[in-house]
Amino acid sequence: MDEDRADPAARRELSLLDLSAIPGSEETEESWQERALCAQTDPEAFFPEKGGSTREAKKVCVSCEVRAECLEYALSNDERFGIWGGLSERERRKLKRRAV
Q1: How many angstroms separate the CA atoms of 95 and 63, rounded?
Q2: Cβ neighbours of 43 (radius 10 Å)
Q3: Is residue 83 a contact partner of residue 70, using CB atoms and an 8 Å limit?
Q4: In this predicted model, what pLDDT tens digit does every residue of 14-33 receive, in sequence order?
Q5: pLDDT in tens, 33-57
Q6: DSSP for 41-67?
Q7: DSSP state of 86
Q8: What's the Cα-to-Cα distance from 55 to each of 4, 10, 29, 33, 45, rounded to whole Å?
Q9: CA 9 – CA 86 distance, rounded (Å)
Q10: How far apart are CA 46 and CA 56, in angstroms?
Q11: Is 11 within 8 Å of 47 (Cβ atoms)?
């Protein structure tokens, strides 16, 4: 089962998320998000449908200057869907297990 997707309503909600409104959100978080290549790309690529490929999103992530910040954000906020920092949810869970 592919866990790297969310229903269309959740994708819309995530794409509209304004992290500056979240208490504890810092300016550095905003700046990395503004520099992220995914912010200039179709968000659908980062939340593929069931059976869809993650290849295009990961290709964008490879050349993104804020990949590490993005991955750190996803790990600390337990992001459950989509590609973050070049990794799928399954890959992020694996990374967390190895770090423990």
Answers
A1: 20
A2: 15
A3: no
A4: 444 444 444 454 544 458 99
A5: 999 999 998 888 999 887 889 999 9
A6: S-GGGGSPPTT---HHHHHHHHT-TTH
A7: T
A8: 12, 21, 25, 21, 9
A9: 23
A10: 8
A11: yes
Structure tokens at 76: 């600390």
The single-letter code of the amino acid at 75 is L
Residue type, 20: S
Give how far Cα 34 sits from Cα of 6, 19, 76, 83, Å: 23, 11, 19, 17
Q: Kindly list the distances between the CA atom of residue 33 and the CA atoms of 25, 53, 59, 61, 87, in Å, as whole numbers in the listed order.
A: 12, 23, 18, 13, 16
CB 92 within 8 A of CB 79: yes
